Amino acid sequence: MLSKFPHLRQDLLASIVVFLVAVPLCVGVAVASGVPAEVGLVTGIVGGLVTGLMRGSSLQVSGPAAGMTVLVFEAVSEFGVATLGVIVLFAGLLQLAMGFLGIGRWFRAISVSVVEGMLCGIGLVIIAGQLYAAAGMRAPETGIGKIVGLPGAFADALGSTEALASLAIGAGTVAVVVLWKKTPKGVQALPGALAAVILATVASSAFSLPVATVQVEGLLGVVQPPGAEAFGELVSPAIWGTIVAFALIASAESLFSAAAVDRLHNGPRTEYNKEMIAQGAGNTVCGLLGALPLTAVIVRSSANVNAGAKTKASRVLHGVWLLLFAAAMPWALALIPLPALAGILVHAGWKLIPFRQTAALWRGHRGEALILVVTAVSIVAVNMFEGVLIGLALSVVKTAWQASHAKLEVIDKGAGPIQVYLSGNATFLRLPRILDTLEALPEDRPVELDLSGVHHLDHACRTALENWAERHGAAGTSPVRVTGDGKTARPENEEPATAV
């Protein structure tokens, strides 16, 4: 047995650690997404038993992610819980298609600033929304509404004993998670999030605090394959936008997580297209079961690596433990206070905000920092999908602007020809400025245009320069000489220089 599975002991121990990390996150993400708690466990089980068995990234762990919470909540609010399965199903099929077509590796080309901005925006919305949940209040629907309404909600909470008790449980949960890393290493064998939930549960029960707890329906009760009515929603164009958003954002999170996990270990590297197929297969199954979408999750994945996992067996076994827990101990979920789960997600949302990366970008690449901030603000102000599109569009515009950077230098010594040096990337985006400078040169002086420093000269710019060179110059003045451009035609009697 051990000869066939030489790393079984390490993988078994790692799977238990990942299971303990996954339980509170699966339940918390489900509750925050507006679905029963067990639905999050179903997604975690599929992430272990389906995605975990497939090739791609051997040590990456998949399940419901805090980064998808905002998008899922919006989808459930707009289309209903019954339609969620259809959305996840078709998002999974789209991921499968992208994986088989070899598109997975292209996600590595997405601007890091857009991804960090997306995570920042998600984190802000999660924190704002879960602060209401921690106080036992209903949060406004929009991101801006959540943030603007916080002062009023806090004032209302101060006048309510129930809200203050609920806030105390939520704040205590956050404090335990933050301070858990300062405890002895032996104590840290129990993950901080799970320890915080256990302590919150014990405290609320011991002191009979008036706080809401998780509503339990049973594992079989929440597994609801989408019916004919749910599939009928596919005639709405709006649902297809949500499906595309699910597929693209879940894929981006998973593949960027894979790149991060690869830096944590020395084992086999991620096969991106196969990882996309694995994620697609998992989401297809989640959709058929009416569960939450799954993505690779960096918190669980890093816990898996740090716990000493060597093969995919650890993530598969974590799915087995989740299944046994959901089937044998559903009553345990009913004891968990909702503000404790809100506290777990507030901490998760805080971890999503890239404070250090933003500061580093601002010091070295302010344009990228601006893209990050605009993406985050757009997600808060509008919604997840449109915010990401705004960030991508801004990134493309910035790249195009940088790619078209060209420098034009004019040297006039008062006698002899005027020397003009063009360098960089001469494209149509900079053509008006280039022509303005060239057309301002005196007509009665010879001009030498040196293009040896040009890295790229697009068709529009080349044509415009040729037309300018043909027109420029008074009668009796030497024609413009263009040097350093091998593609511009030369008269037969000229050597390296070109008379245009």
UniProtKB/TrEMBL annotation:
<dbReference type="Pfam" id="PF00916">
    <property type="entry name" value="Sulfate_transp"/>
</dbReference>
<dbReference type="InterPro" id="IPR036513">
    <property type="entry name" value="STAS_dom_sf"/>
</dbReference>
<keyword id="KW-0472">Membrane</keyword>
<keyword id="KW-1133">Transmembrane helix</keyword>
<feature type="transmembrane region" description="Helical">
    <location>
        <begin position="369"/>
        <end position="394"/>
    </location>
</feature>
<keyword id="KW-0812">Transmembrane</keyword>
<feature type="transmembrane region" description="Helical">
    <location>
        <begin position="234"/>
        <end position="256"/>
    </location>
</feature>
<feature type="domain" description="SLC26A/SulP transporter">
    <location>
        <begin position="8"/>
        <end position="375"/>
    </location>
</feature>
<feature type="transmembrane region" description="Helical">
    <location>
        <begin position="110"/>
        <end position="133"/>
    </location>
</feature>
<feature type="transmembrane region" description="Helical">
    <location>
        <begin position="12"/>
        <end position="32"/>
    </location>
</feature>
<dbReference type="InterPro" id="IPR011547">
    <property type="entry name" value="SLC26A/SulP_dom"/>
</dbReference>
<protein>
    <submittedName>
        <fullName>MFS superfamily sulfate permease-like transporter</fullName>
    </submittedName>
</protein>
<feature type="transmembrane region" description="Helical">
    <location>
        <begin position="79"/>
        <end position="103"/>
    </location>
</feature>
<dbReference type="GO" id="GO:0016020">
    <property type="term" value="C:membrane"/>
</dbReference>
<dbReference type="GO" id="GO:0055085">
    <property type="term" value="P:transmembrane transport"/>
</dbReference>
<dbReference type="InterPro" id="IPR001902">
    <property type="entry name" value="SLC26A/SulP_fam"/>
</dbReference>
<feature type="transmembrane region" description="Helical">
    <location>
        <begin position="319"/>
        <end position="348"/>
    </location>
</feature>
<feature type="transmembrane region" description="Helical">
    <location>
        <begin position="163"/>
        <end position="180"/>
    </location>
</feature>
<feature type="transmembrane region" description="Helical">
    <location>
        <begin position="277"/>
        <end position="299"/>
    </location>
</feature>
<feature type="region of interest" description="Disordered">
    <location>
        <begin position="474"/>
        <end position="500"/>
    </location>
</feature>
<feature type="transmembrane region" description="Helical">
    <location>
        <begin position="192"/>
        <end position="214"/>
    </location>
</feature>
